[in-house]
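Input record (one chain):
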Amino acid sequence: MPRNRMIKSEYWTSEQVLSCSIHARLLFIGLWNFSDDNGVHQASYLRLKAEVFPADNFTIEEIKQWIGELIYNGLLREYIVQEKSYWIVTGWKEHQKIDKPTNRHPLPLSQLITVTNDFNRLPLEDNSTNNRRGIDYQYPSSSDERKRKRKENKENKYM
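The corresponding structure, as predicted from the sequence alone:
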């Protein structure tokens, strides 16, 4: 399913992007609309041409050339999972913020390992407005105790 995607202003002046032809740059933006929420698209030149340039007389050979430019300049990577080829946008996570991601295509194994390692190494940001209880927090055992705690919390909130 096509999605609306963000194009940051630095896209237009990126040397990596400017190293590609104008057709490859336009194809790249179009690819974002038809990639899943991880920046993955099935590696099908015919399908991509039909999605991005449905009314234009570009050939499959031209699409292959432009995809080659994107890969050569490090904007796109091709990988295979269970004998199927996919393209992944290399800087996807930096430039696209997805609220409720859904995946349509499998990620490359290296991407899965990176995601797992980053998850284990990096602290989670807490942008929540809710106060979190620490691990040593003792939950009240009885309903009377819970009521008393709620009352104390309300009183302390306004002090």
